[in-house]
Specification:
Layout lengths: L6 E5 L5 H11 L6 E7 L6 H7 L7 E5 L5 H9 L8 E4 L14 H29 L2 E6 L12 H22 L3 E7 L6 H12 L7 H22 L3 H12 L7 E3 L5 H9 L4 H13 L1 H15 L1 H7 L3
Parallel strand pairs: 1-2, 1-4, 2-3, 4-5, 5-6, 6-7
Helix pairs in contact: 1-2, 1-8, 3-4, 4-5, 7-11, 9-10, 10-11
The protein binds NADP nicotinamide-adenine-dinucleotide phosphate.
NADP nicotinamide-adenine-dinucleotide phosphate (NAP) binds next to helix 1, helix 4 and helix 6.
GO molecular function, one term: all-trans-retinol dehydrogenase (NAD+) activity
Pfam families: adh_short
Family: Belongs to the short-chain dehydrogenases/reductases (SDR) family.
Length: 316
Amino acid sequence: MASDSKKTVLITGCSSGIGLKIAVQLAHDPQERYHVIATMRDLRKSGKLEAESGHSLNKTLEIKQLDVTQEDSVKKCLDGLPDRKVDILVNNAGVGQIGPIESLSMEDIRKVFETNFFGVVNLVKEVLPGMKKRGSGHIVVISSVMGLQGILFNDIYAASKFAIEGFCESLAVQLLKFNIFISLIEPGPVNTEFEMKLMEEVSRSDFPGADPETIRYFKDIYLPSAHEIFVTLGQTPDAVAKATVKVIGMDQPVFRHQTNILYTPLTALKYADNTGNLSVRTFYNLLFNYGSMFHFSLNFLRCITCKCFRRRVMPV
Ligand SMILES: NC(=O)c1ccc[n+]([C@@H]2O[C@H](COP(=O)([O-])OP(=O)(O)OC[C@H]3O[C@@H](n4cnc5c(N)ncnc54)[C@H](OP(=O)(O)O)[C@@H]3O)[C@@H](O)[C@H]2O)c1
């Protein structure tokens, strides 16, 4: 189905959220540059993607099964492609995890790494030989600002994204030799099913092993603040997909792209002070000592990002 002039793009985790939107936007590319292999671990969840892909379904977009944690599933999917050819790999599949570390089982902790870290490694290992042979390729990873800056109660999720950032940073240098690019897309909060899935998990747990003080500030301080951040700063999955599609279209793709400019000051804190104290203490004080400043900052951001304010300061 893919003609030689089209680039084959394989995307993981397309049943919902950012992955679904990237698949649809690429499949609807006005210049028809892409043939999209939109994968998901459970094909029973393909209805939403089928509906949104419309006329491109089975033309510029094909849906296939792929579970990033299962080597057999990855191999089977790739074996089903002509010459196993993938020009652009988009590693989007990911899972979150929040809560006091003492209350998480090692099995649940490992599951996050199985998807967010080993899942990406699994796919990269499979596509690299072909890309190297052809002397071209692009590997895109949907990372997170939490791959740059750890956030409390997201210890394991942030660690999995830090791990993938280190992996990509190391690979990027060697792969340039083969004309293969790597790009890390680093969104801040995005309003997808991601947050809802986390909240559902949290509501089912009574946090065994965690002390009452930690549980109290997780529930009373962290959860409401996190929700406020999603409401105030959250992007749409369409906006993150648009930023990703732009990076995919670049002749010389950038290595890093933060999709939410409102988040850049937070990640910049880390690089402004190499003792690390500035970012650690700023986050601590904003949450625990100066709660009113935290709310003020979010309301300020809400004002300067609202459409009517932007129209006044940046008239078109
Ligand atoms: N939402 C945010 O605030 C945010 C912020 C920064 C970065 N990100 C990153 O963006 C990516 C997409 O997340 P999203 O916000 O679009 O959330 P989402 O709507 O929950 O999408 C996650 C996707 O990953 C899939 N997935 C999970 N485990 C998988 C596996 N083992 N194999 C294949 N697919 C699997 C899910 O499939 P099922 O439907 O089968 O579960 C789903 O399609 C993730 O890597 C996430 O870390 C999200």
